[in-house]
Amino acid sequence: MVDLLEKLRPLSERIGADRMETDAAIAAAYAVDGLRPEAVIFPRNTREVAEVVKVAGREHLSVIPWGSGTKMGMGNVPSRVDLVVCSSKMNHMLDVDTANLTITVEAGVKFRDIQARLATEDDRCYLPLEDLTTSQDELICSDRANSGCFLAMDPPFCETATIGGIVAVNSSGPRRLLYRFPRDQLLGARFVSPDGEIIGTGGKTVKNVSGYDISKLMVGSAGSLGYITEMTFRLLPLPEHVETLVLTFTSFDGACDVAEMVLDTTLLPAAVEIINPRACEALPLGDAAGGEAGIYGVAVAMEAFAPAVTRMKKEILDMGRHKGAVGDFAFEEDDHRRFWLGVSHLQEFGKLNDPQPLSFQLTYPLSGTRDVVSHAEAALAESPMPHALMVHVGTGGSVVTLSHEVSEGEGEKRVI
Asked: What confidence score (pLDDT) does residue 292 get?
């Protein structure tokens, strides 16, 4: 430890001793797969991150980026953890330009704070004035005046995740069916390369690069190509009306039939999810599902103009009744948002009984959805552990979350 502190002394002088923690108790909270770092550093800006990386490179120290820690369980176990560089102090929204539907933020800003800020922003759209005496209020081109904007992403753990972590692991959720992936919203990025050089790519316009778009390369890199410090995103106006329709079935095949029918139409839902019985119990459905056991649900998020939502709801209800749905119910506005917030945090459902539930993702061709998920559901049904299953219909992925169970007698934890 003394040798490490000596190596970090020049860094401490440059960024300040208060930016570095070497206390074992504090460092233990930033352990990665059980490996405790020797020091945790809290830079305040891109320049300080560059200083950290330069010193680490010179002294041959490993560097692990850290946001809020929601993604640290992903990937392989690192061979060593010398420094954890936490972005919690880099939490500023640098440029909120709703007139041009862009926002630039630092890596440590929490996703929920971005959405809260954007929801209150004025995004009026004015038509050109014909004369200087005409009031702008008379020429608003939409009734959606002052309705706000949002960052069109839907990551897991959206209440706690930082935007840097979301981009670094290309994190997305059910509503990527409509809004696509983080790389589709990213316009530019600023990052620190492994040799400590500060690199900026992209900008505030859509066509802002010629040749390779390096900012897109950073999405999903998990810190292996550099430490992402700032990002610029495109924004969308908040939809006029949001609603979730849930259809319930007594079997997975019935739920899958309707989900496939929805995708075969010209409708544009934001998400189509098949939910197994355990997930139905864990999600904020209240008494809407009737408390029936063994019920599979198909949850459809609809986010658009009110007439479009009304049309989608009517057609999907007709499909469900045609395929034998045993029930249906809908959530609007705040209840809609509350439901999908529950979906975002569904991977934590096992924490009621165990602090470390196991989650894994199934990835397959779209044509194999029914076969792969049916096989997985049948196999998991034979396990004594409760499992929540969310099938992202239309995107070729499912998330399974298992809670550990303590064996009788030996007290050992079993995974499967």
From this structure: 56
